[in-house]
Amino acid sequence: MTLTEQQLSLIEEFGVYQENNGFQPAVARVMGLLLVCDRPELTFDEISEALSISKSATSNALNMLLNTGHIEYTTFPGDRKRYFRIKSSNWSEFFVKKMDDLSYLSTLLKRVLDVRKRDLPIYDAKLNDFISFLDYMKDRMPSLIEEWQKSRK
Fold first, then answer.
1. Which residues contact 45 (CB under 8 A, 6 or more apart)?
2. First and final CA of the chain: distance in angstroms?
3. Which of 95, 102, 118, 140 is the least buried, fewest Cβ under 10 Å from its Cβ?
4. CB neighbours (10 Å) of residue 30?
5. Are 73 and 82 in contact (CB under 8 A)?
6. Measured distance CA(63)–CA(75) in Å, rounded
7. Over the stretch 47-82, which tens digit does the pLDDT of each residue have?
8. What residue stretches are annotated with the HTH marR-type domain (predicted)?
9. How far lies 47's CA from each of 67, 88, 119, 140, in Å?
10. In sequence order, which ranges of 37-120 are alpha helices (DSSP H)?
């Protein structure tokens, strides 16, 4: 498989973006490759070779992406290889999970304010603002997704 300079650059840019969001470098590059590549599915060896990463790093990256639901694999009759692809249907599930995570964070931060005994009104106000924003996002996100879906019909 041959990638253009533009594809390689975009894979790297996407990788850096995902690293800044907590992904390991190999995991981030695998996601970038699967998004940018002209083919919808790639084998383990194709991924390893295209990114010049070890088989161990490739295996770890693919396992993490499979476990987190970012990718999936398919097989073809007569071919024992697995073909990996981006799981593009899960974006709404991703947002629901993120909103659940933010809701949990909001709950934790409320408990922090209840438990701590420090008198820091400016810090408390900023923390309360953040909690309020998280709660606002949790309340608004379902209707935003619904509005978007209606606008696409």
1. none
2. 38
3. 118
4. 32
5. yes
6. 16
7. 999 999 999 999 999 999 999 889 999 999 999 999
8. 33-82
9. 18, 18, 54, 39
10. 44-51, 55-67, 91-115
Tens of pLDDT, residue by residue over 110-148, are 999 888 877 778 888 899 999 999 999 988 888 888 898
Q: Which amino acid is at 149?
A: Q
**78 and 9 in a common domain:** yes
Chain centroid to CA 21: how far?
8
Q: Are residues 62 and 115 in the same domain?
A: no
At 67, which amino acid appears? N
β-sheet with 42-43: strand ranges across: 42-43, 79-86, 71-76
Domain interval for residue 102: 90-151
Q: Copy the structure tokens of residue 71.
A: 């990718």
Position 46 pLDDT exceeds 80: yes
- Indicate the number of domains in the chain: 2
Cβ contact 99:141 at 8 Å: yes
Question: Looking at the structure, do residues 144 and 80 belong to the same domain, yes or no?
Answer: no
3-state secondary structure of 81: strand
Chosen domain end from 71, 86, 101: 86
